[in-house]
Amino acid sequence: MNIFRSFFNIFSSDLAIDLGTANTLVYLRGKGVILSEPSVVALKRKDPNMSQILEVGSKAKGMEGVAPEGIVVIRPMKDGVIADFEIAQAMLRHFIRRCHHRWLFKPRIVVAVPSGITQVEKKAVKEAAEQAGASEVYLIEEPMAAAIGAGLPITEPVANMIVDIGGGTTEVAIIALSGIVYSKSVRIGGDKMNEAIIQYVRKKYNLLIGIRTAETVKHEIGSAYPSDKVESVEVRGVHTVSRLPVAVAIDSEEIRKSLKEQLDTIINTVKSALEQIPPELAADIVTRGIFLTGGGALLRRIDQLLREETQLPIHVAENPLMAVAVGSGKALETLDILREITIK
Questions:
Q1: Same domain, 172 and 296
Q2: What's the pLDDT at 324?
Q3: Which of these, 31, 62, 84, 306, is most buried using a 10 Å CB contact count?
Q4: Could you tell me the pTM of the whole model?
């Protein structure tokens, strides 16, 4: 059996997947992250019962808001879990085929999932991966994967506090001795922030803008904490009354205020976690602080906001966007750790 497994390992290209609401990242064992694409699929509707996949990933995302009649752009992931099983399966199959070329052996696949995932949602992820071509599927919780990817000593008897702000969820967890001491998942992330910007612009300026525009505004001038310098950007959209294309200037303070509700939820979730820390681990958090991962960690001055609210050291991971994928991949390459942290 050991000889066969060694032979299997030589000819199989095992994968770790961060199946995110906004982006999907794939880690190839021994190579690292080799794919990072938006979790978006473009379909051509031939008739009510038939659809043809046109594009997956960045090309599909480029069609959002501009696709002609008959082409539908779908995001099969919502709030960190599968919302459209068939489309998610097709998307996974597409990404796996791009990354795995040794079809004599199907790959083993590790998938990172939110810590608050239900049994039904776990089953959906496993089945989607299996039907997309996996021989075996292992699920690990996103905050655990993020902690590994951020280089935290998860196997040691010290507290590691991680806040992973993704597209669909924010995961807050305290990890020690390869286990999660406390975790809380809230369905707030980058997508809800984009929606908040869309709603703010519509309410204040009677202007309709799309998801791509909101995301661009967030990246360009979005922030979590006030700055001495106020920046502005021109936003184009359709006026709700005249239905004509118009442009307005929006500043960074407006965007910060539009994100307040989402940021308050994240802060309250972090504070709630801190209140649950066992006394033996509290000293570690005071000394080591909190580590931020996920795309939301790139929101400007979010570390300053959390530092002011918690009075603790705040560290942004070196590559927050890839932390979950890298951590899942490292677990894949260290089977002893993978067995310890796999969830059923």
A1: yes
A2: 97
A3: 306
A4: 0.91
The rounded distance, in Å, linking the Cα atoms of 94 and 272 is 40
Structure tokens at 124: 């959906």
d(CA 314, CA 288): 9
* Residue 50 backbone phi and psi in degrees, to 5: -135, 140
Residues sharing a CB contact under 8 Å with residue 252, sequence separation 6 or more, in sequence order? 221, 222, 223, 227, 230, 231, 232
Burial of residue 216, with CB atoms counted within 10 A of its CB: 0-12 exposed, 13-18 middle, 19 or more buried: middle
Q: What is the per-residue pLDDT across 305-332, written as a single tens digit (0 to 9) for each?
A: 999 999 999 999 999 999 999 999 999 9
| pLDDT at res. 3 | 43
Cα atoms found within 13 Å of the Cα of residue 109, Cβ hemisphere only: 30
Residues in CB range of 206: below 8 A, 6 or more apart: 239, 240, 241
Tokens of 50: 């038939």
Number of domains in the chain: 4
Q: Are residues 15 and 107 in contact, defined by beta-carbon separation less than 8 angstroms?
A: yes
The tokens describing 114, both together, are 């939110």
Whether residues 228 and 274 share a domain: the answer is: no
